[in-house]
Write a structure and sequence with these properties.
The chain is α/β, with parallel strands linked by helices and 265 residues long. The chain has a single domain, classed as L-arginine/glycine Amidinotransferase, Chain A (5-stranded Propeller), CATH 3.75.10. Helix content is 23%, strand content 25%. The protein contains 7 helices and 15 strands. The strands form 5 sheets. The protein has a 3-stranded mixed sheet with strand order 2-1-15, with helices on both faces. A 3-stranded mixed sheet has the order 3-4-5, sandwiched between helices. The longest helix has 17 residues. The two termini are 18 Å apart. Bound molecules: citrulline (CIR). The site of citrulline has 18 residues, from helix 4.
C-alpha cells in the first residue's frame, strides 16, 4: 500500500515560455493576448519560488512550434515514481510531451497510453492516497480509465469528477495543499462532488476561482497566485504560511501555478 503524498517536492521539471506564447490556447481566463515576455517574467518568478521552497528545478528549452509548451503539467502524471506520458487532449499541443518524456526517462520508467485515450495531467490531483481525475474536454473516458487501471494496480484509490464546461481542467479549480485538505472554487465544483473526499475543504469564492490552484509544501507552506485577497485570507485562517507569485501573464493563456511543473521526486 502506498504512503500518503508527503509534498516534500524535491525535484521538478519546467519549460520556458514559447516565443509564440501569443498564440497559446486561451478560452477561460484570458482578457488580453498572451504576452511571451511578460509570461517569461512570471515563469522566472515561479521557478525562484519553487527553489526557495527547496525544489531542485530542471528547466527545459522552449518550442517555437508549440505556443503552450510551458504547461508541462499536462504532459505527464507521476505514479509512485513511474511517469505516465499523456496523449494530450488538444491536437495543437501534441508533441509537447516528447522532451518532457525524454527528461523524465532519465530517472523514471515511462508508461504510454493507448491511442484512443486522451488525458491532460491538469485533470489529475494526487490527493494523499488517491487520484482525483477530471473528465473534461481534454481527458476522455478512455484516458481516465487507463489512468484508473494504472493507479489501482499500485494500490491507490480513484475518484472521477465531471468537469463543468466553465472550466478547463480539474487543477484549474481544485488543489490539495496539505494532507486531508482540498481547496476548491465555488461555482465550478460542488459539495456533492467532493465533500466526501476530504477532512477539510477550503472553498474560495467564484470571483477567486483562479486562486484555487495552489502548490502545497510540507509544513503548511503554500504558494498561491498574487492578487486574490479572499483566498489569501482563507489560507491564512487555515494556518498556512504563504508565498505569492504574480501569475497574471500566465493566466492570459489559462495556465495556473501547478500547470507549469511536473514534480517527479
Ligand atoms: C491550454 O489550453 O491547454 C493551455 N493554454 C493552458 C493549459 C493549462 N494547464 C493546466 O491547467 N494544467
Amino acid at each position: 500500500m502506498p504512503g500518503a503524498y508527503d509534498r516534500s517536492r524535491r525535484e521538478a521539471v519546467v519549460r520556458r515560455v514559447s516565443p509564440n506564447f501569443d498564440r497559446a490556447l486561451s478560452k477561460y481566463f484570458g482578457t488580453q493576448t498572451p504576452d511571451p515576455v511578460a509570461a517569461q517574467g512570471s515563469h522566472d518568478a515561479y521557478v525562484m519560488a519553487l527553489r526557495a521552497h527547496g525544489t531542485d528545478v530542471e528547466i527545459l528549452g522552449a518550442l517555437d512550434s508549440h505556443p503552450d509548451c510551458c504547461f508541462v503539467e499536462d504532459c505527464a502524471v507521476m505514479i509512485d515514481g513511474v511517469a505516465l506520458i499523456s496523449n494530450l487532449g488538444a491536437p495543437s499541443r501534441r508533441g509537447e510531451e516528447v522532451a518532457v518524456a525524454k527528461y523524465l526517462s532519465e530517472g523514471s520508467d515511462l508508461l504510454r497510453m493507448p491511442q484512443d485515450a486522451t488525458l491532460d495531467g491538469g485533470d489529475v490531483v494526487f490527493f494523499d492516497d488517491r487520484y482525483l481525475i477530471g473528465l473534461s474536454t481534454r481527458t476522455n473516458q478512455a484516458g481516465a480509465a487507463f489512468l484508473t487501471e494504472q493507479v489501482k494496480e499500485e494500490g491507490f484509490d480513484v475518484e472521477l469528477i465531471d468537469i463543468p464546461s466553465s472550466t478547463l481542467h480539474l487543477t484549474t479549480v481544485c488543489s490539495s495543499p496539505r494532507e486531508g485538505t482540498l481547496v476548491a472554487a465555488e461555482g465550478h465544483l460542488t459539495q456533492d462532488q467532493i465533500g466526501h473526499l476530504a477532512d477539510e475543504i477550503l472553498w474560495v469564492p467564484n470571483s477567486d476561482s483562479y486562486a484555487a490552484n495552489t502548490i502545497g509544501y510540507s509544513g503548511d507552506r503554500v504558494i498561491i497566485a498574487d492578487g486574490y485577497a479572499s483566498t489569501r485570507q482563507i489560507m491564512l485562517d487555515a494556518g498556512f504560511s504563504i508565498t505569492t507569485v504574480d501569475m497574471d501573464a500566465i493566466r492570459q493563456a489559462d495556465g495556473s501555478l501547478t500547470c507549469l511543473s511536473v514534480f517527479n521526486r
